[in-house]
Amino acid sequence: MCSVCSALIVVILMNIKTVGVVGAGTMGNGIAQVFAQAGFSVCLVDVAQPVLDRARAEIERSLAKFVEKNTLTADARDATLGRLQMAAGVDRLAAADYIVEAIVEDADAKRALFSGLHAIARPDVILASNTSSISITALGAASGRADRVLGMHFMNPVPLMTLVELVRGQATSDASMRTASELCAALGKGNRPSFEPAADPARAEPLYLRVADGLRAAGLAVETGRFGADMAVDLVNDGPVTFWIETRGGSLVK
């Protein structure tokens, strides 16, 4: 890594020490884990204590597997767990320096959450969404801080997958995108920037069809469809698949 890039990451780490994660499901607990492993203090929030208890148990199991495979020391595991806090209310995120939302994929629920987070978080705090399909521009409008709202779409399973898709809404600032990109680097993950998809799915549809046409023109065998992430992984694992391209909205070219 170049010295300039390293310096930028140091600046990010100086300004962002506590990360809030809202939603303790599969994606949320994975996101909380990777931030805690990278040295950030993490507050994982959900609405019910049993959900949080299951999330912590899952994180403990995940870290134990890394220890068993000698990719993580027992001391590092203990330190990671020591940086992880659980809370059954978003009020605890008032002290967070960066917040990632990973709740149910429901536009109304996310808009309501972002509106509530705006009232809790400091004005300078970036609100990121792990959504794979909901408009970042719409979430930004609901948040009251559209320039500091972006998509930070982690891949599942989060502790193992090394790519994060960063999605820019219409009002997202350059500074917010740069901060998210440097956070990805601090997590040891690469990132792929993208822009807001067309609001009308009918306009977005030809995008993946055009990609498919271009690949076919190059002599490649291509299949297209609309798949969930888990199904896409299954397709790749079952093969023969050389690579697959996921476009916004769940369309897949493989």
Provide an overview of this structure.
The chain contains nine helices and eleven strands. With 254 residues, it is α/β, with parallel strands linked by helices. The protein folds into two domains: 3-195, Rossmann fold, CATH 3.40.50.720; 201-253, no CATH class. Helix 6 links the parallel strand 5 and strand 6 (149-154).
Largest sheet: 8 strands, mixed
Runs in which pLDDT lies below 50 for 5 or more consecutive residues are 198-208, 226-244, 246-254
Q: What is the first-to-last residue Cα distance? A: 32 Å
Helices, by number, come to 9
Structural class by helix and strand composition: alpha/beta
Return the average pLDDT rounded to an integer.
82
CATH topology of the largest domain: Rossmann fold
**Total number of β-strand segments?**
11
Count of spatially separate domains = 2
Spatial strand arrangement across the major sheet = 3-2-1-4-5-6-7-8
- CATH architecture group name of the largest domain: 3-Layer(aba) Sandwich
Roughly what percent helix? 40-55%
Tell me the overall shape.
globular
